[in-house]
Amino acid sequence: MASSSDYFSSFSRASLPLLFFFFFFFLLHSDASAQLSTGYYAESCPRVFDTVKSVVKSAIQQEKRIGASLLRLLFHDCFVIGCDASVLLDDTPTLLGEKTAKPNNNSLRGFEVIDRIKTAVDKVCPGVVSCADILAITARDSVVFLNGPSWEVKLGRRDSRKASFNKANTDIPPPTSSLANLTAAYAKKGLSVRDLVALSGAHTIGQARCVSFRDRIYNDTDIKGSFAKLRQANCPRTAGSGDDNLAPLDLQTPTVFDKDYFENLVGSKGLLHSDQELYNTRGSSSAALVKSYSGSTSAFFDDFVAAMIKMSDIRPLTGKRGEIRKNCRKVN
Ligand code: HEM
Topology of domain 191-311, per CATH? Predict the structure, then answer.
């Protein structure tokens, strides 16, 4: 009678080829090995960077604020499922996009610039570069044109075939958020308090609507009186009146990417409630980071770059997943 060890060794000998087969099948079909890389288009589209840059440059020359709007698009893309260009999809009878979700509706801008970039890129290398990668390069170029830091963008994302209206509502934190809410929202995406504070420094550029900061300028107590008055002048107390009136997120230099945003927070002049929250819990690591960035451009820039790279890495579609959209607004 065969012993049990003979039995197992003959079993494993017989099944070894089968195991190898499954192993190689897995390697071939899994995306585990597919990762983003800075040289992703080195062969297939070496002109992608120059092409994106020239369209971003002309858009910012026409209107400086668009640089801020383009940077924000990447945040609103990456926080909803992942960096997969889902934010760019228009509504259709069979697809409810993210554009009308609360954080985006009547607020997100820059879609026409992305269309122009896609057309220009597809002219030099048709069907190669994803809309998700275009968003990542565009965000970097926008920061650079407004005097901010530069970094090498990792590429190889593919575009989603779906969007999530619900996740756009739940996963992008509102401007009424507390520090605890913000910390939790970032942790859910694998981002730390350091990433949260550094990324919030993006509010050194761009504008917000009265509806986003009305409560803060009328009801918050941790706001400098003269600053609240200044903003009240163009943002009426009554809900519904002047909702779309704009104010700069950084009252000093809204078209320059610098550390003034953090100086504002130290002076209780953050425009959004969520901004001021970062400095308000004295003794917290978040307040310490605000203080340190307010005194050091390089500390801010270094952490901002690291956090942008992390944020741009949230759940990309790689390998055979997703598609390269022909038109960034529609699935193929
Ligand atoms: C920490 C959580 C965040 C909250 C609660 C928040 C909230 C907001 C709000 C309410 C506005 C104004 C929208 C409007 O009134 O139409 C805004 C604008 C903006 N946000 Fe954020 N944001 C956050 C993080 C970020 C991040 C991570 C980035 C980019 C890395 C970013 C970039 C921007 C930019 C550049 C603008 C100005 C856009 C423009 O002028 O078109 N924000 N944000």
Answer: Peroxidase; domain 2 (1.10.420)
